[in-house]
């Protein structure tokens, strides 16, 4: 990737984080929430998602490719920073560092999560349903790993929305950026509750 | 002199480096306290009598300085972890031992001296000036509204000191990011009525290697800036300008400079 083109790569990275990856995350957590209504409701909802027309194309172009670009370019971005929270202990500097740490953690979490669920289904070893998740989450370590993973994802998305608004020049003034901080904080809390409630429904 | 002030000492630790390539090391000094001292006058004491805290003779400490009133930016260094100007860093307001280190985001020349050339190269790269040279008298430019002038004056206070680059986590030896200071200058010159006649050239320059997109919004720069320049507002405003410029470049436009 040429350095002269990095402006476009960075903008693409910012855009893909929200559309489609961020939207997919929100949709994924909402569909998972069917688990709180019981096994049957969850299986029906996940069965519906899995039976969408052109599901393979949707998965490749709306999830897999954008996510791969966002992840690989994100790793590059994360490792070009030299963090300095000791000398600059401001909220924004901590969020900057957390954004990079959660990003790296999410690469590990999502690779594991996809391997454990979608990949197993693809090779025909297992079926993605309520029982599969209940089995995975019956291990308290795995439950902890998934809760941390979900919260890392919702944080990374919420803080990513804040950065997106700045990176595209939507929020400019300090006041507008402060308001965006509160709005994204609410998004973070709301999505975290939805995600963690769904996880606990499998236990 | 009063006896009490003669015995009072100032503890200073300096992160020294003899040549650009040599290994840096800490050296401790004790300086006689005088009222109203700043870091520069303490360094001058060391230069007068280059003996370290162990009583051993050493080389005088090298540092840069010029105006001594926080408008030139030359004497910037990292004082107790914070990059700032040493002329306006008063000994009475600092926790001792006072730790002095060079701004290592720049190549170190010697001791506290750094080479800030990259900042001046960036200013050239982004064309941080108003081009008015011609083969004939171009006459007066358009007038600037007074309130806009007052606002732009704040951006013009930048002294290229390098403190914002030192504070920025994305400016380091492993990245080509030019840092906040030259970016804010693009906003200043694009706001100028005559300067804006070339605004697309400056926007395209910061859309290149090491430009605007490298900002990660840690927002340390605006906290660190000794001149209180709204650097993050400048960056966000340029983000909007470059978003528009990106579409103009892609689709073509008759409105490149208006």
UniProtKB/TrEMBL annotation, chain A:
Heme binds at residues 28, 70, 113, 156. The keyword Transmembrane applies. Gene3D superfamilies: Fumarate reductase/succinate dehydrogenase, transmembrane subunit. It is found in: Membrane. It holds the Pfam family Sdh_cyt. InterPro entries: Cytochrome_b-558 (IPR011138), SQR/QFR_C/D (IPR034804), Succ_DH_cyt_b558_Firmicute (IPR016002), SuccDH_FuR_B_TM-su (IPR000701). The chain crosses the membrane at residues 12-30, 50-73, 94-115, 143-167, 179-202. GO terms for cellular component: membrane. This is Succinate dehydrogenase. One of its GO terms (molecular function) is metal ion binding. NCBIfam families: sdhC_b558_fam. Keywords: Heme, Iron, Membrane, Metal-binding, Transmembrane, Transmembrane helix. The keyword Transport does not apply. Signal peptide: none annotated.
TrEMBL record, chain B:
The keyword Iron applies. Its EC number is 1.3.5.1. It comes from Psychrobacillus soli. SUPFAM superfamilies: 2Fe-2S ferredoxin-like, alpha-helical ferredoxin. This is succinate dehydrogenase. Keywords: 2Fe-2S, 3Fe-4S, 4Fe-4S, Iron, Iron-sulfur, Metal-binding, Oxidoreductase, Tricarboxylic acid cycle. The keyword Transport does not apply. Belongs to the succinate dehydrogenase/fumarate reductase iron-sulfur protein family. Residues 149-181 form the 4Fe-4S ferredoxin-type domain. GO terms for molecular function: 2 iron, 2 sulfur cluster binding; 3 iron, 4 sulfur cluster binding; 4 iron, 4 sulfur cluster binding; electron transfer activity; metal ion binding; succinate dehydrogenase (quinone) activity. GO terms for biological process: respiratory electron transport chain; tricarboxylic acid cycle. Its cofactor is [4Fe-4S] cluster; [2Fe-2S] cluster; [3Fe-4S] cluster.
